[in-house]
UniProtKB/TrEMBL annotation:
PROSITE patterns attached to this UniProt entry: BULB_LECTIN, EGF_3, PAN, PROTEIN_KINASE_DOM, PROTEIN_KINASE_ST
UniProt GO BP: recognition of pollen
Keyword Glycoprotein tagged: yes
Xref: Gene3D superfamilies: Bulb-type lectin domain, Phosphorylase Kinase, domain 1, Transferase(Phosphotransferase) domain 1
Catalytic activity: L-seryl-[protein] + ATP = O-phospho-L-seryl-[protein] + ADP + H(+); L-threonyl-[protein] + ATP = O-phospho-L-threonyl-[protein] + ADP + H(+)
EGF-like domain mapped to chain residues: 298-334
Localization per record: Cell membrane
Topology within the bilayer: Single-pass type I membrane protein
One of the record's GO molecular function terms: protein serine/threonine kinase activity
Protein name, as recorded: Receptor-like serine/threonine-protein kinase
Listed EC numbers: 2.7.11.1
Protein kinase domain residues: 530-845
UniProt source species: Olea europaea subsp. europaea
Length: 874
């Protein structure tokens, strides 16, 4: 191109525009980027980085943020704090509690002396970590636990941490500390009001003198007390005996420095000391996007420290709530009568030791009155870990000992001062032994005799009447048996025309109201005397037979087996539950029979047998029958059946044993949930319960049920998730090889109760962890979910639907119940009413957890795992 002045001018103008654009972009990045983007990419503040209002930094995992905030319903004052990313109004720590910054001119950085500092717009230091350090290479890091730490970059040493100076919130890994040597304590302190984070009146911490326990103080006065720590629970909290508390720890290390804490878990959990002195434990519900309250204390007036004064006992279920201990009377009767119990009570009669009388001169020795289910008083002194009889002897020999108690872990506990903050629990607690004068105990014996003698006489009279009544019944029954021409016992031949429904005398033992009752004769004839050729299969209750009544109607007859481990309780439970239910996805109970030792249930006949036969029997042509459409219909049908049980029926019912063998298929392969012998009915607004007898089938039990006995709708959702994975993969979840567990595996599995097993999985032999949970989770994380799907049903057109089912199933089998969706949400996910699905968390893989968490007496496991499912329908 030839040179010309015009071309030169145009080129110069073009270069000038490029230069202006470059300068503009540079200034934009220089001035605006610090206010727009770095908060999402760093968890660290350095000397070269200034965090200005409203900038934030996020912890790894994006659970917590550090930044500026104003309390709810306020906009004037600004504070620096750490808060949850899911709920920015949920503040867990505040730096400048007593000195807010007016307006939005604040900034945070690392000072020249290596401290974290908060400055206002005039560069005045409002707050500082205030540690003495010679390090100039320091940086602040927001950890994934919510702890803000100041570190020496050259040595990696922690110089300061927010968990050492907490505000009003207790989090996993934060430790309440009491150093009995130096007096140093780490405590929570309440906000002044819900809108003002200034230090309030209440504080919560650990008191390690004598036997460690936790306190809430109102100023310097105790307000609430947890009771002593016995190595497992705090025995002064009634809810501690039933609520799952594994993971709480108290450590004496270094010696004299006691710390109380909870290890880090997967759930978002916190305990907040509010401005009124209440401790409130909450967990984040990702479905409702709210914090669910799981515990609070104090819960009632009896939980408030010393409500009934010295030697007074508080019972929240009584009216009035305060009473003097036995052998005591109000110190001021007038005040006590007006409801002012703070003065407490005094002994009615002086003790032998107080009167300086010895037994050799004729005085009777003091004794002890046992009070059951008690919260033990404050100021307990720990004795040697001896038997309870030795505790009594030691206390009796010491005149200053006025009461004792015993805990298997703590050992002997003695009291020599006044007894205060005693509470009567309903059915848990410790036996407390109060020292009383012998005359008080004699009076108690006389009162007992006055009550016992009439009661015994009445019982004797009742027993005589019962004996006469039974004698008459036996005579009438004997006469009737002589007149009967047919005996209704197994193994005999019965007439084929006996299809009527007859109520036998033995039915009087069972309250079946108007429920249809079959005679044993009728059912024996319908099944050809329970011939093996008519057996459809075996379950936890016993064998199931195909039967045909005289009118040609086909039925399924489930006969109780004496070796099943189930009895009248499970039988009546199933009758009581299923007789009240009507739904197309629940099997219909037609009637029952109770004669002599026989307990039999009669169901509608399901010609296509149970689901496990189609999924796990290699000889069955399931691949040609159960295509993906049928399987998806089965998944939805089971879900609709559970929805009816949980939400739509008159009764709220938890099945507790959902598995393929308990899902029957009708002629159109529609699923029907069966076997309600282990189901539980909830009344009112109750939504979870505990049981001392764990029933069900390993591999399908939710972790909290198998290890704690705690069940709810979410435990059925867990079983449903396992079942979904089996339907998609056509592989049984409990397919373990017979390998002897290594010590490392046993040690790992035994901690499933306490910690998520991330570090354990790599130590478990791969052929041992061969269940669907492990395979599904592993392949899902590797983005290879297609490899998990049964290839005989795979079609590209259903790929997204199959992958979605795996995703939903993994949401259902998450370890913590609060993380699992309810069944109505699961159905909405399946039908795509809910399109976007959250990411699932890692489930517990192995089902061979440490059985020490559930004693043998608690086991009520379905025997299905050790029986064979035989061919046939029911």
């Amino acid at each position: 191109m030839a040179f010309s002045p015009t071309n030169f001018f145009e080129l110069t103008m073009f270069n000038s525009q490029i230069l202006e654009l470059f300068v503009f972009q540079y200034l934009f990045i220089l001035l605006c980027l610090p206010r727009l983007g770095f908060c999402a990419e760093t968890d660290t503040i350095t000397r070269n980085l200034v965090l200005k209002d409203p900038d934030t930094i996020s912890s790894r995992g994006n659970v917590f943020k550090l930044g500026f905030f104003s309390p709810d319903n306020t906009t004037k004052n600004r504070y620096v704090g750490v808060f949850y990313n899911v709920s920015e109004s949920t503040v867990i720590w505040v730096a400048n509690r007593d000195k807010p910054i007016p307006g939005s001119s604040g900034s945070i950085t690392i000072s020249r002396d290596g401290n974290i500092v908060l400055m206002n717009g005039e560069s005045e230091i409002i707050w500082s970590s205030n540690v003495t350090t010679s390090s100039v290479d320091a940086s602040a890091h927001l950890l994934s636990t919510g702890n803000l730490v100041l570190r020496d970059d050259s040595s990696g040493r922690t110089l300061w941490e927010s968990f050492g100076h907490p505000s009003n919130t207790f989090l996993p890994t934060l430790r309440l500390i009491d150093n009995i040597n130096t007096g140093n304590k780490v405590v929570l302190s309440s906000w002044k009001t819900p809108m003002d984070p200034e230090v309030g009146n209440f504080s919560t911490g650990l008191q390690a003198l004598n036997i460690p326990q936790t306190f809430t103080w109102n100023g310097n006065r105790p307000y609430w007390r947890s009771g002593p720590w016995n190595g497992r629970i705090l025995i002064g909290g009634q809810e501690m005996y039933s609520v799952y508390t594994s993971g709480i720890t108290m450590v004496n290390y270094p010696p004299g420095t006691f710390s109380f804490g909870v290890p880090e878990g997967k759930s978002l959990m916190r305990v907040t000391l509010n401005s009124t002195g209440s401790l409130v434990e909450t967990m984040w519900n990702d479905h409702t996007k709210n914090w669910d309250t799981t515990w609070s204390g104090p819960q009632h007036e009896c939980d408030v420290y010393g409500t009934c004064g010295p030697f007074g006992s508080c019972n929240a279920l009584s009216s009035p709530i305060c009473s003097c201990l036995r052998g005591f009377e109000p110190k001021n009767s007038e005040e006590w009568g007006r409801g002012n119990w703070s003065g407490g009570c005094v002994w009615r009669k002086p003790l032998l030791c107080d009167r300086n009388i010895n037994t050799s001169s004729g005085g009777k020795e003091d004794g002890f009155l046992r009070l059951s289910y008690m919260k033990v008083p404050d100021f307990a002194e720990q004795g040697p870990p001896r038997m309870i009889e030795e505790c009594r002897s030691l206390c009796l020999l010491n005149c200053s000992c006025i009461a004792y108690a015993h805990d298997t872990t703590i050992g002997c506990m003695f009291w020599s001062q006044q007894l205060i903050d005693i509470q009567q629990f309903s059915n848990v607690g410790v036996d407390l032994y109060i020292r009383l004068a012998s005359s008080e105990l004699d009076g108690q014996k006389d009162k007992k005799l006055i009550i016992i003698i009439p009661v015994v006489a009445g019982l004797v009279a009742i027993l005589i009447c019962i004996f006469i009544y039974l004698l008459l019944i036996a005579r009438r029954k004997g006469a009737k048996e002589k007149l009967d021409t047919k005996l209704y016992e197994a193994g005999q031949t019965y007439p084929s025309d006996s299809a009527g429904i007859v109520i036998k005398d033995d039915m009087d033992k069972v309250n079946l109201e108007e429920f249809p009752l079959f005679t044993f004769e009728t059912l024996a004839n319908s099944t050809d005397k329970f011939h093996d050729d008519n057996m459809l299969g075996k379950g936890g209750f016993g064998p199931v037979y195909k039967g045909k009544l005289a009118d040609g109607k086909e039925i399924a007859v489930k006969r109780h087996s004496a070796a099943s481990g189930q009895g009248m309780e499970e039988f009546m439970n199933e009758v009581d539950v299923i007789s009240k239910l009507q739904h197309r996805n629940l099997v219909k109970l037609l009637g029952c029979c109770v004669e002599k030792e026989e307990k039999i249930l009669v169901y509608e006949y399901m010609p296509n047998k149970s689901l496990d036969l189609f999924l796990f029997d290699p000889s069955h042509p399931s691949q040609k029958i159960l295509d993906w459409k049928k399987r998806f219909n089965i998944i939805e049908g089971i879900g609709r059946g559970l929805l009816y049980l949980h939400r739509d029926s008159i009764l709220k019912i938890i099945h507790r044993d959902l598995k393929p063998s308990n899902v029957l298929l009708d002629e159109d392969y529609n699923p029907k949930i069966s076997d309600f012998g282990m189901a539980r009915i909830f009344g009112g607004n109750k939504d979870q319960a505990n049981t001392g007898r764990v029933v069900g089938t390993y591999g399908y039990m939710a972790p909290e049920y198998a290890m704690e006995g705690r069940f709810s709708e979410k435990s059925d959702v867990y079983s449903f998730g396992v079942l979904m994975l089996e339907i998609v993969s056509e592989k049984k979840n409990t397919n373990f090889h017979n390998h002897e567990l290594s010590l490392s595996l046993l040690g790992c599995v035994s901690q499933f109760v306490f910690f998520p097993p991330f570090s354990c999985v790599s130590n478990i032999p791969q052929d041992l962890i061969n269940d669907n949970l492990y395979q599904a989770w592993k392949l899902w994380n590797e983005d290879n979910g297609l490899a998990f799907i049964d290839q005989t049903i795979y079609k590209a057109e259903f790929q997204r639907e199959m992958m979605r089912c795996i995703h939903i199933a993994l949401l259902c089998v998450q370890e913590f119940p609060n993380n699992r969706p309810i069944i109505s949400t699961v159905l909405a996910m399946l039908s795509r009413e809910i399109v976007d699905l959250p990411s699932p968390e890692q489930p517990i893989f192995a089902e061979k957890w440490n059985r020490s968490h559930v004693t043998s007496s608690q086991m009520g496991v379905s025997i299905n795992n050790v029986t064979l499912t035989m061919l046939g329908g029911r």
